[in-house]
Amino acid sequence: PMLRTTIAPKTAAQRERLLDALTQLADTDPLLRCEVDSITHEIILSFLGRVQLEVVSALLSEKYKIETVVKEPTVIYMERPLKAASHTIHIEVPPNPFWASIGLSVTPLPLGSGVQYESRVSLGYLNQSFQNAVRDGIRYGLEQGLF
């Protein structure tokens, strides 16, 4: 199964060198993926197995002279809904006189069709910038998966 973990240099000064080294390693290994989380700014490493992580750690230490701190890897689960589901929450925070209801519906699609997002809220009810934030939050949540 695919695994995922965070990796960081032991010294902050080596962060750029670590990113460069991981990019080089990922370019030569199609089963290795490196990315920086857009919110936490952590370096995320996805790989196929623990042996691959050991090899990457050894290369970083021996070839690139970068000592790293690696968290315990977790399995990445890709889930697919089995049936349609909906949920709505109502938000009211006194003393703010405004309230909101937010609903989300999830419907299974045919395998291989990816993720489709559709907003049914008109711009008269919710500004485009807020609708974009909702869309981006959903995409971010989907990228994280369950781990």
UniProtKB/TrEMBL annotation:
<dbReference type="InterPro" id="IPR020568">
    <property type="entry name" value="Ribosomal_Su5_D2-typ_SF"/>
</dbReference>
<dbReference type="InterPro" id="IPR005517">
    <property type="entry name" value="Transl_elong_EFG/EF2_IV"/>
</dbReference>
<dbReference type="InterPro" id="IPR014721">
    <property type="entry name" value="Ribsml_uS5_D2-typ_fold_subgr"/>
</dbReference>
<dbReference type="Pfam" id="PF14492">
    <property type="entry name" value="EFG_III"/>
</dbReference>
<keyword id="KW-0342">GTP-binding</keyword>
<dbReference type="GO" id="GO:0006412">
    <property type="term" value="P:translation"/>
</dbReference>
<dbReference type="InterPro" id="IPR041095">
    <property type="entry name" value="EFG_II"/>
</dbReference>
<keyword id="KW-0547">Nucleotide-binding</keyword>
<dbReference type="GO" id="GO:0032790">
    <property type="term" value="P:ribosome disassembly"/>
</dbReference>
<dbReference type="Pfam" id="PF03764">
    <property type="entry name" value="EFG_IV"/>
</dbReference>
<dbReference type="InterPro" id="IPR035647">
    <property type="entry name" value="EFG_III/V"/>
</dbReference>
<protein>
    <submittedName>
        <fullName>Tetracycline resistance ribosomal protection protein</fullName>
    </submittedName>
</protein>
<feature type="domain" description="Elongation Factor G">
    <location>
        <begin position="1"/>
        <end position="71"/>
    </location>
</feature>
<dbReference type="GO" id="GO:0005525">
    <property type="term" value="F:GTP binding"/>
</dbReference>
<feature type="domain" description="Translation elongation factor EFG/EF2">
    <location>
        <begin position="73"/>
        <end position="147"/>
    </location>
</feature>
<keyword id="KW-0648">Protein biosynthesis</keyword>
